[in-house]
Design brief:
With 68 residues, the chain is mainly α. It has helices at 3-20, 24-61. It has one domain. α1 packs antiparallel against α2. The longest helix has 38 residues, at 24-61.
């Protein structure tokens, strides 16, 4: 399990606990933290995709190497 997935699971458990306690401020805090984690995860993945696509263009643009 990735760090993001572990953090999300912990926050969801915390959110449920706060809801059971009827601590709506705690529920709101956990929900906001979940939103930030999800956004960070998506941003990280988007950056990886961009870098991967850029690397592919570099490989494609290299002249073919002759064996001799």
């Amino acid at each position: 399990m990735s760090t993001y997935e572990e953090d999300i699971k912990v926050l969801i458990d915390y959110l449920y606990m706060k809801a059971k306690q009827r601590d709506w401020h705690g529920v709101s805090d956990a929900a906001n933290d979940l939103r930030v984690l999800e956004a960070d995860k998506l941003s990280y993945q988007a950056c990886k995709d961009i870098v991967g696509a850029y690397r592919q263009t570099l490989v494609k643009d290299e002249p073919e190497k002759q064996p001799f």
